[in-house]
Amino acid sequence: MTLAVATTGCKQNKTEHLASLNVAYMDTTVAPGADFYTYVNKGWMDANPLTAEHARYGQFDILNDSSETRVRNLIQNLGASNPEEGSVAYKVWTVYSQAMDTARRNAEGAKPILADLKKIEDTPHEGMEDLFLWMHGNYASPFFGAGPMEDLMNSTVYAMYVSGGGMGLGDRDYYLLNDERNTAVRNAYKKLIATQMQNAGYTEADANRIMSNVMKIETAIADSAMTREESRDIPRMYNPRTFAQLKESYPAINWDRFFIETMEIASPDSVIVTDPKSMAQANKLMSSLSDREIKDYYLWKYVSQASSKLSDDFTNANFEFSKVMSGVQELRPLWKRALDATEGALGEAVGELYVEKYFPASSKEYMLGLVENLRTALGKHIANLDWMSDSTKARAQEKLAAFTVKIGYPDKWKDYTSMEIDPKLSYYDNMHNVSMWHQRDIYSKWGKPVDRTEWGMTPQTVNAYYNPLANEIVFPAAILQAPFFDPNASDAENYGGIGVVIGHEMTHGFDDQGRNFDANGNMINWWTEADAKAFEEKTKGLIAQFDEVEVLPGVHANGQYTLGENIADQGGLRVAMTAFLDAQAKKGVDVNSQEALIDGFTPAQVFYMNYANLWANNIRDEEIRSLTTGDVHSLGKNRVNVTLRNIAPFFEAFGITEEQPMFRPEAERIVIW
């Protein structure tokens, strides 16, 4: 069967041809049972070598490039239309134009931030509390973060959350581990701090002092922070406290002033502390550090958030750090960075233009049908589980039936009328006003019902997501393109592409995190004790499968940290295949039949081939290390090869036998959903 697959790739089917897949990209010298990822993608990888701009480049990046080009054209057309001053179109064009104007930013240098840096420096001891509140309310979140979010136990209302934070490197390991990789990143970060502070006008000696104090403080914060694996345990992050308890536990912060002056709200009756250990450390640091140490930390937090909106000196210093972090060799083109800024500021305004021009109603209709097919298929899988009790199955079916589906774009667009953008102001000042607008938008939610019409991504984003607090699956317009979705492609390609993505997002509702939430999006344990134990035993096996993969010499994948995505990948594949089989059965098509070949491949083979095609990419070693540290998704090759080794229909489709590396004995396969 393997030989037949390798030699029939160029046969032509009389009625159906590949659209998303390109057989020229396949490497038929590699057997699908030896390395399926390479078998499908080696030609694509050879044809798409990494350029200096990229640390990683894959199918998602191709679509993202397409989306960026479209958005660039839309914005340039706005400029050509001479939009009315003060209109949203005018604001979009102004942000983009200022982001492109490096000549002005280079002439201004650090001038836009000097007054604020002087304010930090000149604050006397008795003003340190005022300085803390000013920093939190305007520029950064030193020591910890706070804000409203849906209450995990009652997702129709907002709760106030207080969370540890304040690490510029994000992950604790960068500060605490002394291996070669973490030491290199830490040294690059030290260099970044010292360089940026000199760019801001400080002497080398003062910049080095600031760097030392920042590292002292951030390392102490890291020492109390959750591990990556602990951060996936949602229930442990729900620690309600009365307002009186909050003040008693962390007295170094004036909490009444904090809420009244930074958020402009009355002190809440209660808060949720996500990480009490980190908050205790923040309280200790704030009460024990000297004014000089705290000011140095604030100075860096301020300059760090400002650096991307200032001169090329700041941009280039950030890039030098990125080279160490991800291995990228060339700064992204200015226009792409300008787009990032514009979409960050007015993303839905741009999205409205994008949808009008690039998203046909027919795509939404097709997707709605696919989603219902996948919903039915997942229902079958739940009903047939051999490890779950009937009572828990009933609750799972209830949750599945309650999924809200959002496709393409929001029904209600965000109103940017009150956002202030003035071309006479510096780019930094305008972007600060943008940040304050978005912050006020978030804080304004406090005391109001949760608006479930809101989207967490813009329509022009090439991605999809599941939101457990709303029990919703969301598919922005930009992902509905080949190789994920193509109206001219075969059902096999579309089910192996967007069908798997749909199944993936649905399965997130039942992964190690999503399973903690019920049909209404509330964190309620709806599992029997025996079912929860059976689930956890199965996940241990999946964790072990990924843990054993060596992504670089001496570096292994993290099966615990990537567990949710690995569960969703496997579930998406299994559920999409069931939906595909059901759809083809209605058409009288046998997906394994030689009578239904698509350019020489059976529909079942094409299904799995297009799934592998989604994850084709080239990647630098530095980026592999960075993603293995900080990304909850497995590397593309592992999303294909490790996941498929658990799926019996895949073995059948390609005739994979037990002597081949892709084969996994039935007793060792992990099947969860």
Question: Would you kindly provide a written description of the structure presented here, covering whatever features stand out?
Answer:
- With 673 residues, the protein is α+β, with helices and mostly antiparallel strands.
- 54% of the residues lie in helices and 7% in strands.
- The protein contains 26 helices and eleven strands.
- The strands form four sheets. A four-stranded mixed sheet has the order 2-3-5-4. It has a three-stranded mixed sheet with strand order 6-8-7, with helices on one face.
Largest sheet: 4 strands, mixed
Low-confidence stretches: 1-14
Query: Termini separation (Å)?
Result: 29 Å
Coarse structural class: alpha+beta
Mean pLDDT comes to: 94
Number of helices: 26
Domain tally = 2
- CATH architecture verdict of the largest domain: 3-Layer(aba) Sandwich
CATH C-level class of the largest domain is: Alpha Beta
What is the CA-atom radius of gyration, in angstroms? Answer: 26 Å
Cofactor: Zn(2+)
Domain Peptidase M13 C-terminal: 463-669
Domain Peptidase M13 N-terminal: 32-410
Organism: Duncaniella dubosii
